[in-house]
Amino acid sequence: MPNGRTDHPVAIITGAGSGIGRAAAVALARAGCALVLVGRRREALSQTAALCASAGGVEVIGADVADEPQVRGVIARAVERFGRIDALINNAGYAEVEPVERTTPELLERTFRVNAFAAAWAIHHAWPVFQRQHAASNGTRRVCIVNVTSMASIDPFPGFFAYGASKAAANLLAASAAKDGSAIGVRAFAVAPGATETPMLRSAFDEKALPRDQVLDPSRVGEVIAGCVLGRHDEWNGRVIPVLSDAHRPGYAEFLRANPPIPAQ
Ligand SMILES: NC(=O)c1ccc[n+]([C@@H]2O[C@H](COP(=O)([O-])OP(=O)(O)OC[C@H]3O[C@@H](n4cnc5c(N)ncnc54)[C@H](OP(=O)(O)O)[C@@H]3O)[C@@H](O)[C@H]2O)c1
């Protein structure tokens, strides 16, 4: 494939070196997308790339999304390598469980940078690309943004003062992008998982607090993300999509009545 062009849909995935981001990469590779895998640990991203043999091309970018110039660089490199962007998956996340009195200004800033600002910066820098692509296609080209948020954005656990609020901001960024983007073919979703078996979950909760058989497999969340990109969940455009294990649904009964989850495929 010539450098700079591809006919495959191109998806940027931040936090693609593990957990939900890796699962989304595998699901999108299976659908034939070209992938831009982003994270700080290049080695972890290379391991994800090795699981994505059916992708239409893979670019690995070591970048810290808490740093705006690096996010701008990711968007520029994706366009340079593949010539287009069809999906932007803002998945990299930061979660520290701390009560209000121990939530320092530094913790607040780091949490909002990774979970909210990084998504906002990426959307902002990708927007002119989306506008150009839409104009060049005479208004037929559609793209997709997915912010991976959390059920903590609806109902935070104790200790999620910073995390829950930053994820709620990311929900609203998706809603705004869907509204502002309707004229240029942008669809935008907030995918809000409950507890999912990943390194992030286990850094905060042991199996006594959240038994393995009660939490989601990351592949379930990855499928929902890929479904958004592939146009399977367009009725959720601009909204929060809850993804919950059977064990955790009763705790969100009221929210789920208003926002029924997507059935597992
Ligand atoms: N697991 C859960 O129960 C759960 C529930 C609800 C929502 N979520 C959300 O799901 C998303 C994915 O998390 P996960 O559970 O899959 O955890 P994970 O396996 O720890 O993945 C998080 C990824 O984000 C990357 N990352 C973190 N900070 C970064 C930064 N500053 N710049 C670039 N990449 C960064 C990490 O890679 P590097 O360290 O290499 O940078 C890592 O691969 C997060 O947004 C999280 O908040 C998770």
Distance, first to last CA: 33 Å
- Note the main sheet: 7 strands, parallel
CATH architecture: 3-Layer(aba) Sandwich
Please report the number of helical segments. 8
The sequence of SSEs as H and E is EHEHEHEHEHEHHEH
Q: Tally the beta strands.
A: 7
CATH topology: Rossmann fold
Helical content band: 40-55%
Kindly report the average pLDDT value: 96
Topology (SSEs and partners):
Layout: E1 10-14, H1 19-30, E2 34-39, H2 42-50, E3 58-62, H3 68-82, E4 87-90, H4 105-136, E5 143-148, H5 161-181, E6 186-193, H6 199-204, H7 218-229, E7 240-243, H8 253-258
Helix pairs in contact: 1-7, 3-4, 4-5
The structure holds NADP nicotinamide-adenine-dinucleotide phosphate.
Residues 14-15, 17-21, 39-41, 44, 64-66, 91-95, 114, 148, 150, 193, 195-196, 198-201 line the site of NADP nicotinamide-adenine-dinucleotide phosphate.
Write up this protein:
- The chain is of the alpha/beta class.
- The chain is 43% helix and 14% strand.
- It has a single domain, classed as NAD(P)-binding Rossmann-like Domain (Rossmann fold), CATH 3.40.50.
- The chain contains 8 helices and 7 strands; from the N terminus they run E-H-E-H-E-H-E-H-E-H-E-H-H-E-H.
- The protein has a 7-stranded parallel beta sheet, with helices on both faces.
- Helix 4 (105-136) links the parallel strand 4 (87-90) and strand 5 (143-148).
- The longest helix has 32 residues, at 105-136.
- Bound molecules: NADP nicotinamide-adenine-dinucleotide phosphate.
- NADP nicotinamide-adenine-dinucleotide phosphate binds at residues 14-15, 17-21, 39-41, 44, 64-66, 91-95, 114, 148, 150, 193, 195-196, 198-201.
- NADP nicotinamide-adenine-dinucleotide phosphate binds next to helix 1 and helix 6.
